[in-house]
């Protein structure tokens, strides 16, 4: 599933069509595509994992889900969910969800929740996070109402960098560690963006997809479905502390990949 930084890149690439008029709208998405023809693009925006196309009297929300993709001025062999044609190019989306949003986007979204937005603040993020003391750290970093744009890569990398076990409840983290978590989600999201632009993202992974802990030089624990979110996790049992775990004997055992 593309994470927030990848959607920022899509937004930047699609910006060439800003101000242009849609001349063709096709695809299998269940929406009134005839309504789109003749409308000009006011802006392209992003919120977390949502790619937003703001038109004159309606907006489109594209979510690439787990395996969605897009092509600009190119096409795949498979039919698109949505294809928008302009005078000098086209924008094609595949394997995704497409919905319309009526009214102003500013009324539909709280931009401060987006970890890459200018309006994001650590104070507001901490307040939202502290309201969920029972939530596990691995789930909190995937909750889009807390950290819009944070995905499984960001989760695994951030928790490794701050040395927090993914099964630690948020309420058990010391205040200093909680602040560190919030700050590092923001910091690593922009590092992710830089690495993605350079084409070096995987080369910089310390935990996600790795076999050996670079700090302890021991095998990572690998879980197929950890926490309520049931997503893959890579973590070190030695250097990532499990806060709030009073009895290791009753600790949840990760399912090995």
Automatic annotation (TrEMBL):
PROSITE patterns: FPG_CAT (PS51068). It catalyses: Hydrolysis of DNA containing ring-opened 7-methylguanine residues, releasing 2,6-diamino-4-hydroxy-5-(N-methyl)formamidopyrimidine. It comes from the Bacteria. Keywords: DNA damage, DNA repair, DNA-binding, Endonuclease, Glycosidase, Hydrolase, Lyase, Multifunctional enzyme, Nuclease. GO terms for molecular function: endonuclease activity. Gene3D superfamilies: 1.10.8.50, MutM-like, N-terminal. Pfam families: Fapy_DNA_glyco (PF01149), H2TH (PF06831). Residues 2-93 form the Formamidopyrimidine-DNA glycosylase catalytic domain. Belongs to the FPG family. This is Endonuclease. It comes from Stutzerimonas nitrititolerans. The lineage of its organism: Bacteria, Pseudomonadati, Pseudomonadota, Gammaproteobacteria, Pseudomonadales.
């Amino acid at each position: 599933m593309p994470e927030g930084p990848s959607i920022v890149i899509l937004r930047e690439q699609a910006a060439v069509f800003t101000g242009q008029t849609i001349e063709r709208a096709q695809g299998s998405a269940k929406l009134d595509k005839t309504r789109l023809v003749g409308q000009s693009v006011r802006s392209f925006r992003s919120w977390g994992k949502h790619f937003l196309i703001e038109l004159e009297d309606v907006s489109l929300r594209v979510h690439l889900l787990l395996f969605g993709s897009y092509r600009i001025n190119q096409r795949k062999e498979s039919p698109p969910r949505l294809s928008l044609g302009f005078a000098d190019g086209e924008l094609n989306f595949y394997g995704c969800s497409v919905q319309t949003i009526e009214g102003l986007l500013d009324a539909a979204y709280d931009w401060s929740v987006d970890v890459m937005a200018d309006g994001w603040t650590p104070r507001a993020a901490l307040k939202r996070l502290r309201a969920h003391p029972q939530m596990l750290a691995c789930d909190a970093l995937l909750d889009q109402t807390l950290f819009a744009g944070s995905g499984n890569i960001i989760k695994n990398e951030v928790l490794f960098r701050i040395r927090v076990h993914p099964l630690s409840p948020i309420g058990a983290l010391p205040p200093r560690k909680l602040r560190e978590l919030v700050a590092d989600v923001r910091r690593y999201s922009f590092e992710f963006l830089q690495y993605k632009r350079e084409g070096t993202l995987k080369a910089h992974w310390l935990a996600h997809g790795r076999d050996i802990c670079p700090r302890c030089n021991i095998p990572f624990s690998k879980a197929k479905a950890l926490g309520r979110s049931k997503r893959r996790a890579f973590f070190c049992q030695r250097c990532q502390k499990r806060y709030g775990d009073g009895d290791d004997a009753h600790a949840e055992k990760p399912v090995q990949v």
